[in-house]
Amino acid sequence: MLKIDPVLCKKDALCVKECPVSVLVMNDAESVPEMIEGAETICLQCGHCVAVCPYGALSHKASPLEQSPAIDKKQIID
Q: Is residue 76 scored above 70 in pLDDT?
């Protein structure tokens, strides 16, 4: 359901903190996020985890990274 590239992931937990239904967890600071057991029935498939990752490390079956528009760097809030 969710693919996380361990090379691109910076382990900053942005996706974990921003998931509206808390289906992502990190076991420790050195691990990549993973979905909790039963996440398939809880996940809203909103794609927010994919959208908030600035490294492009996540891809969700409902919101594939490949189909997401590129972020317009002029619209990033500092």
A: no
Contact 3, 14 (CB under 8 A): no
Do residues 14 and 54 lie in contact, with contact meaning Cβ atoms separated by under 8 Å? yes
**Would you state the torsion angle of the CA atoms of residues 8, 77, 65, 46, taken in this order, to the nearest 10 degrees?**
120
3-state secondary structure of 67: helix
pTM, entire model: 0.78
DSSP codes joined into one string, 11-61: ---HHHHH-TT--EE-SSTTSPPEEPTTHHHH-----HHHHH-TT--EEET
